[in-house]
Write a structure and sequence with these properties.
By secondary structure, the chain is mainly alpha-helical. It has one domain: Metal-sensitive repressor, helix protomer (Methane Monooxygenase Hydroxylase, Chain G, domain 1, Up-down Bundle), CATH 1.20.58. Helices cover 58% and strands 7% of the residues. It contains 3 helices and 2 strands. It has a two-stranded antiparallel ribbon with strand order 1-2. The longest helix has 37 residues. The two termini are 17 Å apart.
Length: 138
């Protein structure tokens, strides 16, 4: 969701909407969602993906390259079907990355919650279920 802000010269620009819970002086890049709170998120560096971080970054850079390839293809007036093939490959790459991250979340974060008790398990399972729902909508 975006809003439109007026610049000092009268032109408008799109800006990300600020959630009501976020103070006006907090930059939007630092916005934390409910799932980022201390109750549900362990400290930095101990997430399920921590051991595979370098591999994940390499994979995301490859996907980024595919997206840039799409931009070049448009600039060079490449045939539509060839561009759609690249869109499919990029989409598949992101889906595969998301599934790997989800598996690591289940193995690490949900398993860790199992040690803490039934309420923690329920919270992590609900969190994972919502993440899966979001992934299926795309």
């Amino acid at each position: 969701m975006t809003t439109t802000d007026a610049d000092t010269n009268g032109s408008t620009r799109a800006a990300a909407a600020r959630p009501a819970s976020q103070p006006a002086d907090t930059p939007l890049t630092e916005h934390r969602t409910v799932t980022d709170t201390a109750e549900t998120s362990p400290s930095p560096g101990v997430h399920g993906y921590a051991q595979q971080k370098d591999a994940h970054l390499k994979r995301l850079r490859r996907i980024e390259g595919q997206i840039r390839g799409l931009q070049r293809m448009l600039e060079e007036d490449v045939y539509c079907i060839d561009i759609l093939t690249q869109v499919s490959a990029s989409t598949k790459g992101l889906q595969s990355f998301g599934l790997q991250l989800l598996e690591e979340h289940l193995r690490h974060c949900v398993a860790d919650a199992a040690v803490k008790g039934p309420e923690a398990i329920d919270a992590k399972v609900q969190e994972a279920t919502k993440a899966i729902e979001r992934m299926l909508r795309t």
